[in-house]
Amino acid sequence: MPPVIAVTGASGHVGSRVAHRLAERGAAPRLLGRDPARVPPIVGATVAPAAEYGDGEAMRRACEGAQTLFLVSAHEGAHRVQDHTTAVDAAVAAGVGRIVYVSFLGAAADATFTFARDHWHTEEHIRATGLPFTFLRDSLYAAGLPAMAGKDGVIRGPAGNGRVSAVAHDDIADAAVAVLVGTGHDGATYEITGPEAISLDEAAAELSRVTGRTVTYVAETREEAFASRAGFEAAQWAVEGWVSSYEAIASGEMAKVSDAVPRLTGHRARTFGEYLREHPRSYRHLVP
Fold it and tell me: What's the rounded mean pLDDT across residues 209-223?
């Protein structure tokens, strides 16, 4: 029997792709999610009972018997780091032997992007367990760029003239599977990026080409960015995260381009234009 790989976020964009690919390769994925009913049925995979990261006992039960935990970062939240550490501690208590964590490009205690700080704290906690680990520091999802544009066709934010090496979910999943089924990755940190770093002006131009309407980028100041998002009535930590993601682009912290995808997978990473052509639903809110 192949070793069991516990895959979290199994109903999400990354986790579901990883689960399908593992099953296709004859691995033994165990699918974890908050709602098992939403986990896609996959031949060769088993589904664990419901397990939220913040529920240590449920996570421990879900991880029992697994050799590896593939930990997809939780949705942004005020208690995200605490939930991550609870999940990691539960995996250790269950006897998991390795953790592969989906982190973020430029994760650091003083990262401009506030959510990248969460990833750094999670990485540090995983290191402290003493377990073998691999960190996949993904750049901004390619799907996130069209989502930045409002229905009016305008991308607004304080990104200045910065650039971002956005990466497709499929390329992240391919790289993750290579690490999960391969050897020699213990202690490694891979920066998972697209093949190019583009400006938001260039992203808007690409969106204009595929949608047939004019999409533009308007560079805001920090104050303008907070003001333009006031109508969402979101929590302060959420708005700070949204605004600081643009500021991290402006600072150059999302511009790194690495060769990790081709090195791990044997194929080149998708460009933003290629991603859009493969995923027209990602920009359907912009189509006239």
Answer: 97
